[in-house]
Amino acid sequence: MKIKIPATLALVLSLASGPLVAGEFESLFDGKTLEGWKALDMSYWSIRDGAITGQSTPEHPCTSNQFMVWQGGKVADFELKLKFRVQGNGGNSGVQFRSQLRPDGLAVGYQADIYQSGPYLGGVCDELHNRDGHELLTRNGQKTVIDEKGQRTATDLEQMAEMKPWDEWNEYHIIAKGQHIILSINGVKCSELIDREAGQFDLKGILGLQLRSGDPMTVQFKEIELKQL
Predict the structure, then answer these.
(1) What is the pTM of this model?
(2) pLDDT higher than threshold 60 for residue 12
(3) How many angstroms separate the first and last alpha carbons of the chain?
(4) CATH number 3.10.450.50 is the correct assignment for the domain at 23-228
(5) pLDDT of residue 211
(6) Could you give the CA distance from residue 123 to residue 37 in angstroms, rounded to a whole number?
(7) Rounded average pLDDT over 176-190
């Protein structure tokens, strides 16, 4: 039986829901400052070209992965859209989501991977988790189902993601609902994951942007929009 909610009560409920309203995209970055974002070591991060910019140089090398974390709370079921571009270090970066942040600043959990090409670009990784030595849960161009015991079944999708040349911007679209994750880059659905592995799948956690350790590089993120589902 359907229960009809009076209009006055519906208004009160909507006003009590807070600034993040389910079903609406909210901008997480003002394009000018790092307000609402924080990293353990802020020396790698700045605003450049209207984007959150992570950079390592020969004079200031990155020896362990750095994460710029959104301070607005944890994400669970959500849809995220952003633009990114990356130069150097193999184009290696990523968007961390539903993750946990360790005291040393490293993030553990799901990552929407960024790489110059190949299986990692647009794939879902499990950053720092031990899944029998396999951090890549589903590859660029594949849908993977992981059952309760960790067994994986992969099928091919129609297309694979491709990175645009520097200095063009790429678009990332991430959808996570329950144990189902879909990643798209530049309008191409490039990977899909259904993760049912007991004790391993993540349903809620932080949202972060990665600067990868290794060779000097620059990675930039802008137009970051989140919708709570």
Answers:
(1) 0.88
(2) no
(3) 25
(4) no
(5) 98
(6) 25
(7) 98
